[in-house]
Amino acid sequence: MLCDYHLHTNYSDDSSYIMEDLVNDSIDIGLNEICITDHVDYVVKSDWDKPEKIQYDGERPIANVDYTKFYKEIKSLQEKYKDQINIKIGMEFGMQKHTIGKFQKLFNQYNFDFIILSCHQVDDKEFWNQAFQSEKSQKEYNELYYQEILHLVKHYKNYSVLGHLDMIKRYDEISEYPFEKVKTIITDILKIVISDGKGIEINTSSHRYDLNDLTPSKDILRLYKNLGGKILTIGSDTHKKEHLGAYIEATKNELKQLGFNSYCTYENMIPIYHSLDD
Predict the structure, then answer these.
(1) Handedness of CA 185, 200, 16, 170 (dihedral sign)
(2) Number of domains, the chain
């Protein structure tokens, strides 16, 4: 069983990977199941219902998923390739405190198999370009990031897993902030996640970002396990062909070394457990 549960296509504003090409490439490399999880980040990106408001970076639209087309194409590909690969319908919700209502409305419109709850911005300021971190101390931006996630898991429940939980370290230009300094708030987050029957993802993009740990870190994974957490998904965060399926098997081995014995796929928002030995 080889699955990739974090995939972006040309429906995401930062990817040009044609959805059907991704499906065929997945079949070619031996993936049994994939979940396509294109980006939605309300406020910082426009929706296609008002195309005149969409901004462009050159020819690239800075926009959310074209929901109707996205859903229709996945359903078509599910039927076309049903004998070759299992394709699940997902989405990555890049949520902030003030966008919870918008995401709840979106969730209610479609039948999803899987939702990644991620935090890509705080106060509409991005991490990747340092807009959020600017004029804050390392302590301030790390704590504010986790406080945002804590608020989200307290107030939003229609998700499957938390995406790349400690991704703030990916964009920390100072150094990696010590785990012990944020352990208390991460513990609070994980207790709610576990109590709500949700999980966390292992995001294998840590390898291509040259991080010296997993994402989330082994410290977070040990804490999650010690608190009773069992639901894990594994995803490459693919945006182009060379990312697809990367380090999935290696990650399974890392999880076994940490004492986990299973990972999950999803159907209709319900986790399905698989042995890490499969």
Answers:
(1) positive
(2) 1
